[in-house]
Amino acid sequence: MTEFLKPFLTLRSNIKLRETKDIIIDNLIFRLHYRYTAILLFVCTVLVTSRQYIGEHIKCIVGNGLNAKVVSSYCFFMSTFTVFKHLDPQLVKNGTLPHLGVGPYTVGSTEEVVYHAYYQWVPFMLFGQAIMFILTHIMWKKWEGGKLKALLVGVENASFAFAEKELKAGKVTIPSIEKKRQGVALIRNQFLKNNYITNFWPIYLITCETLNVLHIILQMCITDKFLGGIFWSLGFDLMDRSQSSEDLLDTNFPKVTKCSFEKYGPSGSIQVHDVLCVMALNVMNEKIYSFLWFWFIFLFFLSLFNVVWRLLTIFLHNRSPRFNRYVFTTASPGRLNALTDVIVTDKLPFKDWLFLKYLGKNVEGLLFKEIINELTNSIHEKVSMEDADELYKLHQ
């Protein structure tokens, strides 16, 4: 059992999973791209490269006078093929052929054959795709610039700050009441400054979320090209009840193929050997790419919904107090008071509104309520003073 899990344990030790103290700067749909999909593709890479799950990737049946290992290596790297006219499931069902696409073939003839060379590159392809799914996260992390993390330094566990002095319990540090007050004041003051959160902050986030949608389409195109044009319709074909899914997969991911091995005979003439190859690797490939089709489609629609939702927040954040109550309740449990509803809806630009939402995702509910109340009161006082100045000027 230990040997069976060894590749995955190695993978786990080299992939960083999210820790509870990590700052959240995106949502679950975004994380499905750079965390879960990337890990899925890394796991698939391990599966197709580990011999202990599928045995030998290819094993060719050869005649006398040929070295089976040499021929198998040759056919693996030079690619195997199936004969097009023999890709008829009916020929296998009625016993005319032993395997789909495998039958009589004359080397050098004009008969159409289908070469299968992709299997050599599957591990590299999957690994490269995993890296590509992380790119938008790297871009957003760089553009975000650690603003949320910098603002939250010193207020970790501040909801439990009830003592005059700082307390420590193991690795957990609970700040003093004064330090908590200073942290809340810092967050409030930074919010009131117009230069801390720039207008580009939400633009960069929306750009990366849009890139996630486009990236899924790109991955579908790349995979389709890699597999010879079968990937776009793979899921639809599998759901098509008019054809057998087993026959479909055997056609696109053949488990038994042909290979022509040439060598010099005793007199120096070229001898061509017709070789039958068992492609154990395709047993895993067919399952991986069948699952990836459904996963990519699922991820595409989720990502598209995420972009539509983001555009909807731009439209509704300054128009609907009820919408704001819903958004901030999901970000941090607890109801907002009536004054906060009005201030958040009428006075906060979208960049501050979005930043405040992500702030709520990263602090405890009680602390977030305290922060938002402080911010609301400060904005209310500022607005009241501006209104008083306007009234004073009118009476001059």
Q: Uncertain regions: pLDDT < 50 for 5+ in a row?
A: 387-396
Structural class: mainly alpha
Strand content: 5-15%
Largest sheet: 3 strands, antiparallel
Task: Summarize model confidence as the mean pLDDT.
Answer: 82
Count of DSSP helices?
16
In total, the number of strands is 7
Q: What gross morphology would you assign?
A: elongated
Q: Largest sheet, order of strands side by side?
A: 1-7-6
- Helix-strand topology string: HHHEHEHEHHEEHHHHEEHHHHH
Fraction of helical residues? 55-70%
The separation of the N and C termini measures 87 Å
Rg from C-alpha positions?
31 Å
List the helices and strands and how they pair.
Layout: H1 2-14, H2 28-49, H3 51-54, E1 59-61, H4 68-78, E2 80-83, H5 89-93, E3 113-116, H6 122-144, H7 147-151, E4 167-169, E5 172-174, H8 177-192, H9 200-226, H10 234-239, H11 245-252, E6 256-264, E7 270-278, H12 281-316, H13 321-331, H14 338-347, H15 350-362, H16 365-394
Helix pairs in contact: 2-6, 2-12, 6-9, 8-16, 9-12, 13-14, 14-16
Pfam families: Innexin (PF00876)
Membrane topology: Multi-pass membrane protein
Main location: other
